[in-house]
Amino acid sequence: QQRALVIGAGIAGLATALRLRHKDYEVEVFEASPHTGGKLHAIQQDGYRFDLGPSLFTMPHFIDELFELYGANAKDYFNYKKKKRVCNYFWEDGTQFQADASVEDFINKAAKKFGEPEATIQQYLKRNREKYDLTANLFLEKSLHQAKTYFSVETLKAISQLYKLNLSESLNSVNKTYFKNPKLIQLFNRFATYNGSSPYKTPGIMSMIPHLEMHYGTFYPKGGMHEISQSLTRFAKEKGIKFHLNTKVHKILSQASKVTGIETEKGKVEADLVISNMDVFNSYQNLLKEAKKPQKTLQQERSSSALIFYWGIKKEFSELDLHNILFSEDYQTEFDYLFNKKEMYKDPTVYINITSKETPSDAPKGAENWFVMVNAPANYNQDWEQIKQDAKMAILQKIQLCLGVDISSYIETEYCWTPVDIEKETSSHRGSLYGASSNSKWAAFLRHPNFSSQFKNLYFCGGSVHPGGGIPLCLLSAKIVADLIPEI
Ligand code: FAD
């Protein structure tokens, strides 16, 4: 039997391990921290449960696939439900909009609320779908770095219809060609943040993101987001995958053009294949010090990071749901601060996620567990202690202005993650949430491939490599890696 070693037990590391075990490899996972899941982790504090990282769950069938690969019934291991209400939006002037999962209801309500013709919204969503259908198979489901990807009917079709993809315009300018109401433009601009980019820079092709959310829906896992990584970990153990927690990998060992194993603080381990789920920047920086570095790829601008307050709130808010957005009054300036000035803007867009709306036991009776996140620049050694204090004041003010309530006296417990914490806890270069940003039309082609061109048995998966960050794309990276590796 051949042995595959996976460095990192993030969502992509777990998925790759399962896919390779299914190909009959002996698989061992080495994880620096005491737990699996990477960014998909959770804490308990003073009677509250908080998911630390991702809060929005889309495309759950990519998780189901991992159980089904082995002929198992996914529902026996992992359960989730579709959300009827996708998100509640709030503005300072008192405008509120409840986005429903039913596309028909969304169009109907949005047309009324924002004074746009239903047909225009319909046309916009149709075009978003076309973008996804044209490119998903090519850009997201295959290695972009292999010649055979380019010699297919799908590729020729996508190339012949490149004009439909709006690659040369920003997402914001595409949205402005459809809509007049600045609030609806802002609502659709927000989807740029799903891959940590700016709507004023990321290309118009990104309007396929709302298609994904609106067409496939949003979901909530039973037991919270953490259950995604934990159910996969349990299943992986059941399938004979071995986990080494608290075991930081220091070096990927190589001889000529092949990797031969890894070195951890506990010793050397030989392998036939090595797959790094660690941020690709740090994989080269720390584990492959002597290898040639793909400079252009590694120097790409990082995606945004986040500053998150996890607050135990001793009050219930009926106007809030699982996902809530309180918009900045000046979105463009907010993104100028994040990506150009590398600072937080004084009027940030505030995202509030409350899982106790779905699982009441996540908070004490009569209370709610608030995950309050603002976009933050990647870590360039800013003074995060000061920024944290300023951001807390700005968030409290935003909540006061949008919801009409001063919540400071209701906060009974607090935990916080800054970009530095995200960097420290998950080895994400500069604390970015999604690897490189997608702030240029070439970003998709500049992401690191899922394989090494120097070492023929070294592979990469996770949010910092192709096809990108976020749970669904990380899971696709695992699928691409497994497709590149032959059955034994
Ligand atoms: P990571 O989760 O980055 O894990 C990498 C693992 O490698 C870590 O466990 C780390 O300890 C380990 N490691 C690193 N170095 C070593 C070493 N030398 N030796 C051994 N182990 C090592 N995505 C969504 O889909 N929806 C969301 O709503 C969403 N919101 C987010 C909010 C926040 C606050 C954050 C931080 C991220 C969010 N994301 C979201 C992005 C998503 O979390 C990531 O894209 C995804 O989880 C990354 O998974 P990964 O497989 O790349 O590994």
What report would you give on this structure?
The chain is α/β, with parallel strands linked by helices. Among the domains are: 3-40 and 62-69 and 225-300 and 439-484, 3-Layer(bba) Sandwich (FAD/NAD(P)-binding domain); 107-216, no CATH class. It is 35% helix and 20% strand. The chain contains 16 helices and 20 strands. The chain has helices at 11-22, 61-68, 103-114, 118-140, 153-160, 171-178, 182-189, 208-216, 226-238, 280-287, 295-298, 331-341, 384-403, 419-426, 443-446, 471-484, and strands spanning 3-7, 26-30, 42-45, 48-51, 57-58, 80-82, 85-90, 96-100, 218-221, 242-244, 249-255, 258-264, 267-270, 273-276, 305-313, 323-326, 350-354, 368-376, 411-417, 458-460. Strands 8-7-16-17-18-15-19 form a seven-stranded mixed sheet. Strand 7 and strand 8 (96-100) form a beta hairpin. Helix 4 (118-140) packs across helix 8 (208-216). The longest helix is centred in the first third of the chain and has 23 residues, at 118-140. The mean pLDDT is 95. Bound molecules: flavin-adenine dinucleotide. Flavin-adenine dinucleotide is lined by residues 7-13, 30-33, 38-40, 53-56, 248-249, 277-278, 306, 308, 422, 426-428, 433-434, 462-463, 469-471, 474.
